[in-house]
């Protein structure tokens, strides 16, 4: 996994990080918890600044959640639940996930968008009830941007700190990150295989 992220950075620079973070919100097995720390510690090798990494990760993450906002806005809760009941296996999204995200949004309002961006699994789904509730788009972007910057910066700087000790940990980072990635992919595959479409 470290080699893959490094390759993306070498080929596409900050655009590679933005692309990975965009895909993280579309395809769940690509986790930001691996992308940003790896990008952060690889930035210590001189390819780009840590601030460019944070900016690219934040922009990519923000672009990745916008489609979910408009999906919720266009379909509404009832039709979106119906869609998730039939096809949710591919995005690991069930009607119950939508209901949980909706309850969180109704309980905490706009603040849930900001805080939700800091919580794994909730980070993407919180965009859906914001769209369903027709939260003003500029407010959605503002709160999402603040949460996204905090999240990506925390992960990137954690990796940056690790990168300072690169010579000590370089023989361990790639096997560990690859192992975590494999576990996540297996968990995703398990959910896809065991997903049972809801019938009404």
From TrEMBL:
Keyword Iron belongs to the record: no
Transmembrane spans: 12-30, 50-71, 140-160, 172-190
Major localisation: membrane
Localization of this protein: Cell membrane
Record key words, sorted: Cell membrane, Membrane, Transmembrane, Transmembrane helix
Start and end residues of each VTT domain: 30-160
Membrane topology qualifier: Multi-pass membrane protein
UniProt superkingdom: Bacteria
Protein's UniProt name: DedA family protein
Species: Neorhizobium turbinariae
Lineage: Bacteria, Pseudomonadati, Pseudomonadota, Alphaproteobacteria, Hyphomicrobiales
């Amino acid at each position: 996994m470290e080699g893959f992220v490094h390759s993306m950075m070498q080929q596409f620079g900050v655009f590679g990080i933005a692309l990975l973070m965009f895909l993280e919100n579309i395809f769940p097995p690509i986790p930001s918890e691996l992308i940003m720390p790896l990008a952060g510690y690889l930035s210590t090798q001189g390819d780009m600044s840590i601030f460019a990494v944070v900016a690219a990760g934040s922009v990519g993450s923000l672009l990745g959640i916008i489609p979910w906002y408009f999906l919720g806005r266009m379909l509404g809760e009832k039709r979106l639940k119906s869609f998730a009941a039939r096809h949710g296996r591919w995005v690991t999204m069930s009607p119950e996930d939508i209901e949980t995200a909706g309850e969180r949004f109704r309980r905490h309002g706009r603040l849930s968008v900001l805080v939700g961006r800091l919580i794994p699994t909730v980070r993407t789904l919180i965009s859906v009830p914001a769209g369903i509730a027709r939260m003003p788009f500029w407010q959605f972007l503002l709160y999402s941007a603040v949460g996204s910057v905090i999240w990506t910066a925390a992960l990137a700087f954690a990796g940056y700190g690790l990168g300072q000790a690169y010579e000590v940990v370089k023989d361990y980072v790639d096997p560990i990150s690859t192992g975590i990635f494999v576990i996540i992919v297996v968990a995703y595959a398990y959910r896809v295989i065991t997903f049972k479409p809801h019938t009404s």
